[in-house]
Amino acid sequence: MKAYTIHVTGIVQGIGFRPFVSKLAHELRLVGTVRNDTSGVEIHIQGVDADCQLFVERLQSELPMHGRIDTLQMEPTDVQALDDFTIILSQDVKGNAFIGADMAPCEACLRDIQDPENRRFHYGFTNCTNCGPRYTIIESTPYDRDKTSMKVFPMCEDCQTEYDDLSGRRYHAEPNACEQCGPMFTLKDTDGRVLATGQDAMEQAKVYIQNGSIVALKGVGGYHLVCDALQERVVLTLRQRKGRPRKPLAVMAGSLETAKQYVYISEREEELLLSPARPIVLLRRVRKYNVAPSVAPGMETLGILLPYAPYHYSLVPSDALWVMTSANRSGDPVLYDDMQAEEELQGIADYILAHNREIISPVDDSVVQVVQNEPILIRRSRGYIPLSIPVVPLEKSPTMLAMGADMKAAFGMNRGSHAILSPYMGDMEHQRVQDLLWSTTKRYEELFQLQPIQVIVDAHPGYYTSQCGRTYAEKHQLPVIEVQHHHAHVAAVLAEYNIQEPVLGICFDGTGYGPDGTLWGGEFLYCHKEHMERIAHLSYAPLPGGEVAVREPWRQALWYVKQLYPSEVPAVIEQWKKTLPKGWELLDKMMPHMQMVQSSSGGRLFDTVSSLLGLGYEHLYDAQLAIELEQLALSENGNILDMKLDGTVLDAMSLVRSVIEQLENGESVAKISANFHRTLIYYIGQMARRCCEERHISHIILCGGVFQNRILLEGVIEELREYIVHVPTQSPMNDGGIALGQLWLGSYMNR
Ligand code: ZN
Ligand code: ZN
Ligand code: FE
Predict the structure, then answer these.
(1) What whole-number distance in Å separates Cα of residue 164 and Cα of residue 167?
(2) What's the CA-to-centroid distance between 149 and ligand 2, angstroms?
(3) Using one digit for the tens of pLDDT, what is the confidence trace for 245-259?
(4) 608 C-alpha vs ligand 3 centroid, how far in Å?
(5) In angstroms, what CA-CA distances link 326 with 314, 363, 463?
(6) Which tens digits make up the pLDDT trace of 136-148?
(7) Three-class SS of residue 685?
(8) Mapping DSSP to helix (H, G, I), strand (E, B) and coil, where does residue 41 land?
(9) How many Cα atoms sit within 13 Å of 571 on the Cβ side?
(10) Cβ(541)–Cβ(549) under 8 Å?
């Protein structure tokens, strides 16, 4: 008889790990205990030594579906007087770093809800240890039912039996429930009158949606607005009521087969659509079957997601394509509080279909696109949050708080070598997003029992997140480290792949604060561990009017025009000027006398070209014009136009001139857009080669929001195929990944 204590870390909580351990021990006739602790799971086993060894082997090889073992320590210990194997409920244990993410129903649970003989037929909150809500319902840790929003639903006898049944997949499934004992849906009109409950509420809401109404639906992480994506009239109404003129709306397809009628889906994309995280996947449209034009104007792609909660399966017919967009007001964070929802949805939704399971932590839907078979995250939220990202050099680091950046804000903390990022919160210019930043930081501290002793902020002095980090540091008397924005973008990828050697980081981005007081964003950075050196960049252009010029790209375009044609302006540009908003002449006159901040931003170059091609004079949502410029290029093959490489400067002016010449030659905007993309790809490649040869570098990192442009990303990867090119897949390309890079840099700067 031998006895061992085994300690396991990784994703081992909330995924049915303890029941799995218990089952395995019983099979091998071992006695002992298993319990969650602060950093993972502790197992005590005793029995025949060979069986104990086999137990450890099978523990790793037969791990439950969504589990992940990062470390496993096994030490001999004293044999105790035990006659069974039991799960010990975690008491007085502080939180742990490995709370699971919310998962779509597993195959087995889906069968339950689709089987008329099953007691869970059509029950919308069905789950088991392999699936169901996690992060959004957990109030505090360790993960036990009484610490979730399920605590107000005492289990009925049948559910309790399942919960206690060692052999079943609902053994210790904390959110276990059925129609008798669990949460339920209610359909209300906007006056708060209850129209129906339970399955009737589903059926009625379905009919309302089919008949052209807008229904607010409470999801796993927040409220959605739902309407039929094939009825133009209702989609337009939704846009008007929400004040969202153009931003593409996500759609939920009732089934994969239905989705395939509207978009092309590769194997990898199908895998993502069906993954337990069920993100929105950006997919190329099939033109034959069309959705209402207002769903995604100007877009060749559609953002599609499949049902991600059991109740979606009873609500959304399998042949339906429904708009499923977040219900919050533009700029606000996710709407998840029931009282607030009832108030704010007045005048927006016709009906409210809500359940009575409280959402403790709000999360948006995640957004992903596949590029060169790699999933590129655009928004990392539901289904991914709060799974930790292993970052080896963080191993010996104390806990740090990395504040991220102001756009697409997400902060991060680490517990040892695990980086835990917050969900996407929004843009910090909005008060409610600022509030959410504070409350989520506090939640993370409590949930994961983390007490940062170091704060890392973006070097931008005006960022709210930076100020917030400083206030936090002051309150707790902690040191603050500043990190340059694009350096952090590169470092996020260093962290993901644990790259220790020097790399060339190519960061094309919006605008980020540069150490020289200018705004960077078209950068070729030599990076090695915490060291960074700018070795080349896109040429500078000013932002006439600062922030306004970011919103209204015609302003910078006008500056380019003025530089290129000081006296005689081509006819096409004369024409273009006529489309500009009133007051442009004044700016034109004032410009030589204005103090203007200089920027090397790649994002702004895309904006300038979009403006010159007549796509619009202001963004109706973040990066709209650049996104629509890319869409135009999808249908054409590009040629390489003239662009100058001037030593370490990639000359944007020469490329803008080429674009205008194309306009003069009467090329179509689609063709010009394709040429513009192709040219930029080619010259980024040329510049990258120069940099790599000079510094003897073989690793290249592509990052920054501009690389969310699929044509650009694919093109540059292809162009630089003789190098080892890395792109971020664990954190977003955009500023949502900044916190991860900040953590990596923090760990080196601390040494
Ligand atoms: Zn399940
Ligand atoms: Zn029940
Ligand atoms: Fe950025």
Answers:
(1) 9
(2) 16
(3) 999 999 999 999 999
(4) 18
(5) 20, 10, 26
(6) 999 987 788 999 9
(7) helix
(8) strand
(9) 3
(10) no
